[in-house]
Amino acid sequence: SVIYEMYTYMPYINKQNEFTEEQAQEQFNRMQEIGIDYIRSDYNTYMTYNKDTGSYKDFDTDYFKAFCKEAKELKKRDIEISITTGWSLHALTDNSSSIDSKHIYVEGDWNKTLSNWNDWMTASLLKFRALGLTNITGMFLFTEPGKCGWKEDYRYDNFEAWIDCARTLDTSLKSLGIRGDYQFIGPNQAYYASTGQETMMEYMLKNADQYIDVYTSHDYLKATNAVDDVFYDMAENAFYNPFIKVMKKYKSDKPFWIDEWNVAQSGYTQSHRDAPWLGTQLGVCATAIMEFGIQNSILWSFYSQQWPNNTNSGGEFTDGIQMCGIAYSLNLSTVPTTQYYAFTLLSKYLSTTDTVYHVEYDTILGMYFAYAENDEGDVTIIVVNAYTEPQKFNLDFEKSLGGKTLYRHLYNPTTCKANGKLQILPADRAYSPVKNKLVD
Asked: I need a surface site. Which of 140, 264, 280, 302 has the fewest CB within 10 A?
């Protein structure tokens, strides 16, 4: 899965960055080609706001029609969509968000604000259904709503506001008989270990479990040098210890996803993050995520993207383009980063798997492995060499693979060259028949 904002057809302030239809189709087709079958996207009140009438439920705006046009294109390609229920909870609780949702805020009246938000979300979902957009199936209840945890004076008030939103929307959708068609996903906690306080995820496990279908939180992994073999341990400290251990503590059997993640080298800005060894480290982290029992991980971010109403430069943005992607929007450049080719192997060959098996190996060796199958018995094996030199490995299978043919797709950070046409690194070797052992 990837974070991908559905902005392709929206009107931009930077008119020169608007897509041609040919560019838009190529962008969608590339996502399908590399096996992307689930995305998380922004959905916000400015998309349905009519400043002339004051309505926050105008489904005839250019923004909303553009959003739905793109959703239909993704549906053609069997790509499922999860949306944020308005970007920021803070826009509802204290009107402090720099990103909208403010059109439904009522100063000093939380109940009215909550009612407006629920009205907007329910009306939006019904409109999506009327348009046949059945591929919109998930709702992320805001982006990093727990960041208020840094302000102790209203930390738990904000946690309770999140529960109010979940409870209210849950009740509305149940009354309409459509609650089962949508996953409530959250709390989308940005991990902060230094506060010494109860985290938002722990609070929701205790107080809001009946409303949550999928638990999520996230972190980003950054090392001094992209070549350092430290990312597996970093993933364990960032994902397993604070999240999976907490899920086990509360004996939750619900899915847990990493709702944002990526790897980076310290000192790299978002607009200069192309480092071929980061592709290798994406593979290391993928093996860790699978071994930890995490059902889904959502990469931030797939394309660098122009935001419709943004022309700013600074931080993650250059002239309104959020420069976080492992590829550019195709209206900017058809050439991705080098590590894109490592990620596309993961997305192509893991998106069809159903079962992950435990793999026993010693991480001290700097070699990392994962093994997965789909319901038809097709096998995908990930082998990651975190050394800077080739290493020989020997895989022993507890159960014979029965003489399968396995095809090797090799990502080599020292030789891989990005170009504007290649999406998936082709197989460079076949092994057959494979039964109880594989040596390479």
From this structure: 264
